[in-house]
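Posting here for the record, re: 1,3-dihydroxyacetonephosphate.
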Amino acid sequence: MHRVTIVGNVSKDIYLRLDKRSNQFETDARQVEWLDLAFDGSTHNYYSRVAIYGGASISLEVLTRFGLQANISGTEASFQDGTFVSRGATTTYRYLLCKDDAVSYFVPKQSSPTQWQRPESEHPDWLYIDCSANLTSQLSDDILDYLNEHPSCKLAMFVCTNSNQYALHTQKLAQCADFIITNTVLRQPHPHVATISQDHIDYNGKRIDWSLNEKGQIITDFSSRLAIGASLLAAIILGKSPTEALLLAKANVESARLSGTCNLDTLNNAICGNDYQVQNHKETNTMSEIEQNAKQLMTRGKGILAADESGGSIHKKFESMNIPDDERHRRDYRNIFFTTPELEQYINGVILFDETARQHADDGSTFIEFLRRKGILAGIKVDQGLVNFDNSAEKYTQGLDGLPERLQEYYQMGARFAKWRAAFEMNRELKPSDMAITKNAEILAQYAHDCQTANIVPIVEPELVYDGYYTIEENASYTGKILDALFAAMHDQKVQLSGAILKVNMILAGKQFEQQSSPEEVGHATAEVFRQHIPRDLAGIVFLSGGQSVEQATANLRAVTNCGPFPWPVTFSYARALQDPALHAWQGNNDNADAARAAFKERLIANCAALHKQ
Ligand code: 13P
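Prediction output follows.
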């Protein structure tokens, strides 16, 4: 049976149905009627007074009635035989005054802290933060810690207007959520979100109307949201389709009474006997071209080859080996990689430089076409290198001018993804400034937006350069900042994350720092930064090798894998760590091409093996 732990506050709702004729309402200047409440029975009269448990008890009730094993964190509260048993649950009182059709709330100003206890033995399959929770930053951190340690536990969350939805900690949690229910517009789009409004519920491109049409039932706005949210979640946990989930949620909230919600059998009967309309809200729910290509690029167990060194970088590589830097040698060098036998078993995509994208394979086809026939996607580096900010040692990446036109041409040539690198150096004197972080994030986001407009998957690459002097903690902190700025800018540019890939450095101490990080340290620090700063709906994450030795890059990749699973596919997109042994074997002489291919293949095998958790 599925276990769900609810995080929320239990309230005791006192519904008073007032008798207008025998109560002395005072009317204020705004024509609002007030009643002096003394609760001694003398100053007011009511037809009926009902006290019921509300808040998290509603979620508990709904989930239990759907047949799930539910509890409220930090309490022994349970729902048994049709009754809520409140053992250990702190309750807050809410008074609901019902006069004619109107309901007014008298709610305590301060909502009490939400009880939370880390599950120690019986770990739930889902945590559900419902809309009654008082989500502090400490509570959010504790929940995030728990989720990091228990990756199999999924998170559902009700992000509502009465919680501080824009608080950073709420956003961080929402990013990790597998399913979000909300009555508002989310700041960050999320792929699995159900939206509840006054008269309809939207989920996964479908919409259903709902209403509390019987005036007498006095179910409040708050209680109905709780009932809808928990019904949707229960249906999803039970593997129901989005349409079924909507039907069940509508049937449940519309039949809810003060005495409670319905069980699954009753709801199924209600659905069969009613003519409920579910409308298609969006045109289709099929994956877009960029989503499909991003998915293909992130096919698990394989990586991406970066063979996109700019003219300057390849010149340095060749010069160090006394290899002539001319077009033929550059073409022959890249040809070695592309003609390595069974390349497609290890590689989903290859990033090319403009010159290579226009060169030809031995059979006369373009390299792009040659790779495509092997089932490998070709991508293109589209940035035009780094330049200094005015009067600054820091750099930004240029190349936005004319980018939309260039992207159109690359698409025509067959490229299906692109790459843009921003670089941040860090040493004793120089730390990435907020200005450089923000500016580069904005440029990367603009580039990503342009790519998606041209149906090209953007790889956004903010690199904290390994060759520097800094601790692993400093790397984590600055990479975190850089990623936050990047995803905020991508959100502003409305970049579709499910059609975008992040290329990033691992979290490790700088190359100049005395104490180098062990693979275990790199694995844990990288996993933590990813979980805290990268939205779940991103298509995937790839690593650059950044000047690590070939063995180091593989060992660190393995260590990261071992800290998984992650919500995204995570793999390699190395240049140096895949190419260097082949370059040394080749030495500019095509007689050594087979030896170079063998050296390259060795790195492919080792890095793909490092993608399997041990
Ligand atoms: P390295 O793996 O050599 O760092 O190169 C990856 C890359 O594409 C840098 O932009």
